[in-house]
From TrEMBL, chains A, C:
Keywords of the record: FAD, Flavoprotein, Oxidoreductase
Stretches assigned to the Acyl-CoA oxidase/dehydrogenase middle domain: 121-193
Single GO MF descriptor: flavin adenine dinucleotide binding
Named cofactor requirement(s): FAD
UniProt-listed SUPFAM superfamilies: Acyl-CoA dehydrogenase C-terminal domain-like, Acyl-CoA dehydrogenase NM domain-like
UniProt key word Flavoprotein: yes
CDD domains with a match to the protein in the record: ACAD
Record domain Acyl-CoA dehydrogenase/oxidase C-terminal: where: 230-349
UniProt xrefs under InterPro entries: Acyl-CoA_Oxase/DH_mid-dom (IPR006091), Acyl-CoA_Oxase/DH_mid-dom_sf (IPR046373), AcylCo_DH-like_C (IPR036250), AcylCo_DH/oxidase_C (IPR009075), AcylCoA_DH/ox_N (IPR013786), AcylCoA_DH/ox_N_sf (IPR037069), AcylCoA_DH/oxidase_NM_dom_sf (IPR009100)
Name recorded for this polypeptide: Pimeloyl-CoA dehydrogenase small subunit
Originating organism: Aliishimia ponticola
Organismal lineage: Bacteria, Pseudomonadati, Pseudomonadota, Alphaproteobacteria, Rhodobacterales
UniProtKB/TrEMBL annotation, chains B, D:
Cofactor(s) the protein requires to work: FAD
MF (Gene Ontology): flavin adenine dinucleotide binding; oxidoreductase activity, acting on the CH-CH group of donors
Protein name: Pimeloyl-CoA dehydrogenase large subunit
Keyword annotations from UniProtKB, A to Z: FAD, Flavoprotein, Oxidoreductase
GO cellular component, one term: plasma membrane
Chain ranges of the Acyl-CoA dehydrogenase/oxidase N-terminal domain: 6-121
Domain Acyl-CoA oxidase/dehydrogenase middle: 125-218
Family: Belongs to the acyl-CoA dehydrogenase family.
Residue stretches making up the Acyl-CoA dehydrogenase/oxidase C-terminal domain: 231-393
Length: 371, 399, 371, 399
């Protein structure tokens, strides 16, 4: 057992933190939030140059990391700064799927992803699927060697910016994955902003025609790889949320220390002190759960998913606590859109709406524990 | 003890129901149900409909043109209005300023201002909070200096709800800077069209514009706009804070929110079944419904006690705490229910978001409402302040 | 609507409170707790003389009350003083069943119950039944006009003191009730003390022979009346718990006001102040839930039970909070057996183990709400 | 980062397992599993078995005859001992007094007392708390006045765990009544057979006798029983409080409690199915299991940091808070699981309760344990004190 970061990871963490402290203050981020694109091309290039995207891929795929703790280190820093750029969707989710199961031709994309030139999106969830991974009604129909995809994908993150989509569809009694260029005929997008920043879209696939080379896995066999990549994405998102919680608590501590009420700083009120102590204690639990999850990404499926669900369930509860308490302890100021905490708290709380919420993972943890 | 309605109560309920079904336009109810921002015209329409029926000033004594409803009647209206998705009555003139004028104002003030509140000629907003004060209201700094027949007002108010629609604001201002905190404060009525008054929007974290900053720069206010005596404003402010308790628990809002959650949870698919049948979600919902059933009776008990001359200051604080918890929990459940569809942002303030966002469960901006309603445990005396009050009373004056 | 007590009920409440304040202090009660009998015959007679037992029966049954709010008023006072005497078991449960469904010969017992001369017990729950009312494996077998009862009853309150038992048994595809004198052959008792005071027993029925006149309801039709009487007993127990919570909070407030730590009374520490405010708020919720339940005892079955379950579910949560918080805010002193709060807190918390706990009523509330 | 055990760790685990299966008598494990009170002989037996193996003083440096285990080894022992239902090691001599002696005691003191702790010749108890002090330990009043070669001790200690078995007590006493609270305190070793020492039992609310009052009336203590310097006792007491952190989270106890709950919940019938399948019970259980999984890693992280020279004072407070919450919740679940059978009272102290109480689920005195373990958030620095410490450190010295 060893709980120390390697020197490389510590360096990456430090560099990324400095970059973001320098480039990504509240004003800058609020401008990005208000922009049509929903993220900054400049920041994106900066992250790529720093090697942040490369750190999420293994050496075999052209990166220099890709382990659970690489993901955790990068996303904790992104979360700390409330970064809305689509690193998770492009690199961990869609990029991760290509790395895990793409053909060698498809894998050629990864180089430009790592270089920051290509954006990706994973179109998987559907209006009826909620958080279930195996509920896919989009259909892949093969006739005369050509594949046609028909269906609707819900709340697809980064859809407008994506150059390519990884799309899931029902086929051969299971789920298949396809790599679909964004400009393919029949694929249409209705985009909108998200309350915690960034943009998503409803994606309609109206008989989207694809060659056999678009196929990523053997027909109907994609579910295990989707689950494995989702596990990595969940670790990324939890790390991001942990970073955001650190920021929420830091801002709240600073506010309590300076804001005067009834002639003394809020930090001297014991009721608030004890609630702050509880928040700090819960954050240690969250960090420990994240370590458990990241440390079991290479374990067998049941063990891996049990740790993922235990951790994500805990993050649901703790995230709500930290998000709500940091707003409440501030009072009115935290209710304003332009205040740093408002954005951070929204990211923390809305994290429960991706990759399964607290109850969904509770149910899953029970099922996995009984198995 | 008797929990049932009398014949008269039931007849009154029928009256309320038929009024609502007659006057509440479906488009307006729809807006309320989906939590969409109401326009000034929407609110004015509803006030005018109630006023025509004599039901706008529900708690005013009859001598001032009020309906003077008893506790049960107020409860019945609240319940029926929530069930029908009627807009809430904007409280600033009707149930905040008016009781203060009726108790402490001059006859001239009452004769002039009260009819204008009923007719909608004046739209009032509240100038209490200041940027530096927060829960510590008495530390306010906005100054009013007497010069001849006027006060000259300088300072800044904040969190002024619907101030963008208002033409009048009632303010707490410091008239004696040398007095101790809670002394030296006066209660002043200010015309917002006076030169030097400036309203600046505050956009809340859900993207809505409902509160404002109001700035005063050398604003001239006629001395006849002083309510009661100079430097006694704190007494009036406290009266205002403790007077309007009828809806402090927000039972009507929570009742409506509960029916929304149930409707949505029946419509959402959760792994092949309605989410309503998911035991974990169902447990959350049942727990908050149990709380609401108790809260509703708690609220009625207190209204009944207040009506019978009781003074439930302590219980009002408890109602506010529990009422906010119940309502916030219900808002949490609605956003929870819709899963990934909780993420789209329906902000008024954001570019590119004038397009409709996807809303497959016909629930409106559930996430926005969740975030917006974090305010109900903060504004109007935070839950922490309420707990201080309870502790002060029950632990023997220590705080 | 009207939330005031009638004058009679207010008088009963006042009289009973004075009686208990006078006769039932901590020392006296601790002696009762340590006694072999587990309750005081003298207190029992005193309660009967005051009319406390009579207030739980209707005029038609020889009492002068019996409404939901009569029950609530009496038991709130009993709970306030931490009374362990078996009023609930003798009068509300077994007595209530006799009043509700006994033959006129059986009902003659009620007079001596009201007079304080007769003790009763309701033998219904079984080792496998947990809180379920309809899970009865004890069998009633009728041959040649004689009934034989065989089975085991679990945690039967007041069994050792009871002169008569109301016993449930399976028959004719349903549940029947029988009135069984305690000295009937084949009925044996193994008694033990309870952690919150009083005594109970495991009751074995080994072919207990009864005449037809022992029967209380039509064969197999007893469940509705059991449910109705259980609803009354649940109201009684919630009222008792509310009274106990009032005492727990009062003792805690007094302790906080006098106990000095770091040079000032505990009552001046804001973290404790806020927790006390939360306890007081929750107690108002409990009182309101009790009023809902008591006020719906005469409603139709579904409405009645829905309110009972809503209230008892709430009491489970709030009771645990008040019990645990009042101990925690005291510190060590509340951990000692002889301190008043220890007994009161145990009664509050153990109330969750009778008539269905928080989760059981949550489940039931959901079922009743769906119906 | 690496969460897996090394080869050496795994070998050590096998050693621990075979030791436990050899030396832990089934009757003793059964008593531990059912939470039955252990006799003095039971505890002495277990100490002696560990001592023979060289594993009694797990944290002592080798120079003093200790095992000097690293963090992982201690964690492994803790886990395996809990799994096997081994008795806990009575900590007063071994992990409370001994580290103080080793750091601040004289060579003579160490040479004399340490071997007697290992051999079991002395049974130590702790004289810290006083009736008037509680969490405010520094306000203690027990006085020791120097007279020639002795101190004369007068006063009262309370909550003295297992004091009924002890022949020695280490005490904090006030030697300079004129000094400020935390100064003027000394650390004294007192033979309980000295005239004037009286031990009185305290019966806890679960009916057990595990703590005591200890009264001192003109008790003569030789000056060589002073540890370190006079009036420096507070430093040693703080060292003691911050030193022994390895098991502060009680992960081993909670792991054992979790397996008890699961076993019982599978055996209990809930409306025709095992209670384990009741979604509400299962949810409670899953939630606390998730917490325990995280807590276990949190605990390991802190042990590792402490082993690497870190000083996790803040985190120790957090571990104590969360550890007590997890354990108390598990105790709650066990009593909850057994339904009506939670009510029987297995008190040692009550007449007529020597008969066995019914225990159909073979769980022992679950309710007693639930009530008894309310203490873990109270004793040894209450959770409120821990939160004060956390706030003091993290909110910049304010408290």
């Amino acid at each position: 057992m060893n709980f120390n970061l390697t020197e490389e990871r510590q360096m990456l963490s430090d560099t990324l933190r400095r970059f973001l402290a320098d480039k990504y203050d509240t004003d800058r981020r609020n401008k990005i939030l208000e922009s049509d694109q929903g993220y900054s091309t400049e920041i994106w290039s900066g992250l790529a140059e720093l090697g942040v995207i490369g750190a999420l891929f293994s050496e075999g795929d052209g990166g220099f990391g890709g382990g659970g703790f690489d993901i955790a280190v990068v996303f904790e820093e992104l979360g700390r700064a409330g970064v809305v750029e689509p690193v998770l969707d492009t690199a961990v989710l869609a990029g991760g799927l290509i790395a895990a199961t793409g053909s060698s031709a498809q894998k050629e994309l990864i180089e430009s992803v790592i270089g920051g030139e290509t954006q990706l999106a994973f179109a998987h969830g559907e209006p009826q699927s909620r958080y279930d991974l195996d509920n896919v009604q989009t259909v892949a129909d093969t006739q005369d060697g050509a594949i046609a995809l028909t269906g609707r994908k819900a709340v697809v993150m980064n859809a407008e910016a994506a150059d390519h989509f990884v799309v899931s569809a029902s086929e051969a009694g299971g789920i298949s994955l396809f790599l679909v260029p964004a400009d393919t005929d029949g694929l249409s997008i209705q985009g909108y902003p998200l309350i915690s920043g960034g943009r998503a879209a409803e994606v309609t696939l109206d008989g989207v025609k694809l060659p056999e080379t678009a196929r990523m896995t053997e027909a109907g066999k994609a579910l295990p790889v989707i689950e494995a990549v989702m596990a990595r994405a969940t670790v990324a998102q939890m790390a991001e949320t942990l970073g955001a919680m650190e920021t929420a608590v830091r801002i709240t501590q600073e506010y309590l220390g300076t804001r005067q009420q009834f002639g003394r700083p809020l930090a001297t009120f014991q009721a608030l002190q004890h609630r702050m102590a509880e928040m700090l204690t819960e954050m240690q639990q969250a960090r420990s759960a994240l370590i458990n999850a990241a440390g079991h990404l290479e374990a067998d499926r049941n063990e891996r998913e049990r740790h993922i669900s235990a951790a994500k369930g805990l993050f649901g509860r703790i995230g709500r606590l930290i998000g709500e308490e940091s707003i409440q302890m501030h009072g009115g100021i935290a209710m304003t859109q332009e205040y740093e905490l408002a954005h951070i708290a929204k990211r923390i709380i809305m994290a429960d709406h991706r990759f399964g919420d607290e109850d969904w993972h509770l149910e899953r943890f029970l099922a996995l524990s009984a198995a | 003890m008797d929990l049932s309605y009398s014949e008269e109560d039931l007849a009154f309920r029928d009256e309320v129901r038929s009024f609502l079904s007659e006057k509440l336009k479906p488009e307006l109810a729809e807006k309320v149900r989906l939590g969409r921002g109401l326009t000034k015209e929407d609110m004015e329409y509803w006030h005018s409909a109630l006023n025509s029926r004599g039901w706008l000033a529900q708690n005013w004594p009859k001598e001032f043109g009020g309906a003077e409803w008893n506790a049960v009647q107020r409860h019945i209206y609240e319940e029926e209005a929530a069930r029908a998705d009627a807009p809430r009555i904007v409280p600033f003139g009707l149930s905040m300023l008016a009781p203060v004028l009726q108790k402490f104002g001059s006859k001239e003030q009452n004769d002039y201002w009260l009819p204008r509140i009923l007719s909608g000629e004046d739209w009032w907003c509240q100038g209490y909070s200041e940027p530096g004060a927060g829960s510590d209201l008495a530390s306010l700094k906005t100054k009013a200096v007497r010069e001849g027949d006027h006060y000259i007002v300088n300072g800044q108010k904040t969190w002024t709800t619907l101030g963008q629609h208002a033409n009048m604001i009632f303010c707490l201002v410091r008239t004696d800077p040398s007095a101790k905190q809670q002394e030296g404060i006066s209660f002043l009525l200010i015309d917002m069209d006076t030169p030097g008054v400036e309203v600046r929007p505050i956009i809340l974290l859900d993207g809505t514009h409902e509160v404002n900053e109001v700035w005063f720069t050398d604003v001239k206010v006629p001395v006849e706009n002083l309510v009661g005596e100079e430097n006694k404003g704190w007494t009036y402010a406290k009266y205002l804070l403790t007077h309007e308790r009828a809806n402090i628990a927000g039972v009507g809002f929570s009742t409506a929110a509960l029916s929304t959650v149930k409707r949505v949870a029946k419509a959402v698919n959760d792994n092949g079944k309605p989410l309503m049948q998911n035991p974990h979600f169902a447990a959350r919902l049942a727990k908050v419904e149990m709380e609401l059933m108790a809260l509703s009776t708690f609220n009625m008990r207190m209204i009944a006690a207040a009506g019978a001359g009781g003074a439930p200051g302590l219980e009002a604080s408890m109602l506010k705490i529990k009422g906010s918890e119940v309502r916030q929990e219900l808002n949490d459940l609605t956003r929870r229910a819709i899963g990934p569809y909780a993420m789209p942002f329906a902000s008024e303030a954001l570019e590119g978001s004038n397009q409709p966002i996807p809303d497959p469960f016909d629930v409106g901006d559930a996430t926005g409402e969740y975030f917006n309603n974090r305010k109900i445990s903060i504004f109007g005396g935070s839950n922490e302040i309420q707990k201080n009050i309870i502790a002060k009373v029950t632990l023997g004056g220590r705080a």
